[in-house]
Design a protein that fits this description.
The structure is a single chain. The chain has 20 helices and 15 strands. The chain is an alpha/beta fold. The chain folds into two domains: 308 residues, Spore Coat Polysaccharide Biosynthesis Protein SpsA, Chain A (Alpha-Beta Complex); 101 residues, Serine Threonine Protein Phosphatase 5, Tetratricopeptide repeat, CATH 1.25.40.10. It has a seven-stranded mixed β-sheet, with helices on both faces. Strands 4-5 form a two-stranded antiparallel ribbon. A two-stranded antiparallel sheet has the order 7-12. A hairpin with a 3-residue loop joins β14 and β15. α3 packs antiparallel against α5, α17 runs parallel beside α19 and α19 runs antiparallel to α20. The chain is globular. It holds the Pfam family WavE. InterPro entries: TPR-like_helical_dom_sf (IPR011990), WavE (IPR011122).
Length: 428
């Protein structure tokens, strides 16, 4: 039986965060275009940039006291700080602006949206209606909240769900965001080390876990805790309370240059994000495993994408080893395989992922350089090839690749230099 559609007039949109003069007006325009008739609450800071509050296209402008960031450098144990890279958190700002905005919501549903993310379409409304009434384990909400994506707890943090935007019943949204603030630095430093590590989680973990802990005991030693029981509980909780889409299905796009990766531009296969993230199909597989419901219609709605995305899961799992570290050998082998198959962008993604993980060898730099040249980054490609030669002056393919590149580019002098170097290696 088809569920009734959700009308934009049943939605309060909480646009939260700092006012961005170049971006926030675009966000508000997109809300008016995509959700005509929705109530709009703009929840920003009193001390933010001045703007003509009376002229913005919203129903309510809320000026919050800025709680500020929390400096937590040195609060966590060195290994936790190194692996999570948490030294400063703006989570309190996100909680305060979202929670206060939701308190003013007057419609049955609420959408939480950043002040630098525009709506492209209202796909989240369709998905919320489609998933209405589907049961699930560890239920802490009345209905599911629709969000963008989660990370696989088998490859990344447990209970990690992206916090950029979310949509659901207004009561559920309040339950999700009426959560404890991160304590001040001094208060954290007064605690024993083990308690500090348990209190300060990755922000995306803090949000979901805080909501779950109202109803369930969820002991967790810290952000890196990933025991088999926690991995199972993480899958069950996400499958039971959320609908994890992606930005394309949800209908949002980031305007912030530093968050351009959120938009998943082009082919992201073999990027670090692709490896860690659970696709919509992987999320659906958790639901099929943990929820007492027939998901056949939702699987069918994905078409061929379901099997394609699901087929990637074993590969992604193979690329993570031990303590959630990158399996560099298998990834380099996979990168070279797809490179030979002509999937140049995917190969380049993999080579870059390896480099960012600290892997550095002549073979890797050689293949990266070739892929960069093939995708139009000539200067970067030449630099990578030259570095490969410095690392291993006897690695013949690098000299051949440089000679071929300069020959094709019409630089006879440099082509001759590298051809001579290749000849010297062959004779040695």
């Amino acid at each position: 039986m088809q569920t009734p559609a959700i009308s934009p007039r049943d939605v309060t949109v909480v646009v939260q965060g700092p006012w961005h003069p170049d971006q926030t007006p675009q966000v508000l325009d997109s809300v008016a275009r995509v959700l005509p008739g929705a109530e709009v609450v703009l929840s920003v800071w009193k001390a933010g940039p001045d703007f003509a509050a009376h002229a913005v296209r919203v129903d309510t402008v809320l000026l919050n006291e800025d709680p500020g960031a929390v400096d937590i450098a040195g609060v966590l144990s060195p290994e936790v700080e190194r692996r999570t890279n948490i030294t400063n958190t703006n989570l309190n700002r996100q909680i305060v602006s979202t929670r206060n905005g939701l308190a003013l919501a007057g419609r049955p549903y609420a959408l939480k949206l950043r002040t630098d993310m525009v709506l492209e379409h209202a796909g989240f409304l369709d998905h919320a209606a489609r998933w209405r009434g589907i049961p699930g384990p560890l239920r802490a909400l009345e209905e599911r909240v629709v969000t963008t994506s989660a990370r696989s707890p088998r490859r990344s943090y447990c209970f990690f769900v992206q916090d950029f935007c979310s949509f659901g019943l207004v009561g559920d949204m309040r339950r999700l965001w009426d959560i404890p603030l991160v304590p001040p630095r001094d208060a954290l430093l007064a605690l024993p080390q083990a308690e500090r590590d348990a209190r300060v989680l990755v922000p995306e973990q803090h949000i979901l876990l805080s909501a779950l802990r109202r109803r369930f005991a969820m002991p967790m030693a810290g952000a890196l805790d990933s025991s088999p029981d926690l991995i199972e509980a993480s899958e069950r909780a996400i499958a039971g309370n959320l609908v994890c889409l992606d930005v394309r299905r949800f209908g949002v796009r980031s305007l912030k240059p530093a968050l351009s990766w959120v938009n998943e531009p082009g082919d992201i296969r073999f990027t670090w994000l692709w490896i860690l993230k659970a696709s919509h199909a992987e999320f659906l597989s958790w639901c099929r495993r943990h929820c007492d419901h027939d998901f056949t219609p939702l699987v069918a709605a994905m078409g061929a994408e379901y099997e394609a995305e699901l087929a990637d899961v074993p590969l992604k799992d193979r690329l993570i080893v031990g303590d959630k570290a990158l399996a560099s050998g298998p990834l380099q082998e996979e990168a070279e395989r797809v490179h030979r198959a002509g999937r140049i962008v995917q190969a380049r993604n993999a080579y870059v992922t390896l480099m960012r993980a600290g892997v550095r060898n002549a073979r890797l730099l050689h293949h990266l350089g070739v892929a960069q040249i093939q995708t139009g980054d000539t200067a970067g490609g030449v630099a990578s090839l030259e570095e490969a030669h410095r690392l291993d002056p006897g690695f013949l393919p690098t000299c051949d690749s440089l000679a071929n590149h300069f020959r094709n580019a019409g630089d006879a002098q440099r082509a001759a230099r590298w051809a001579a170097e290749a000849a010297r290696i062959r004779e040695a």
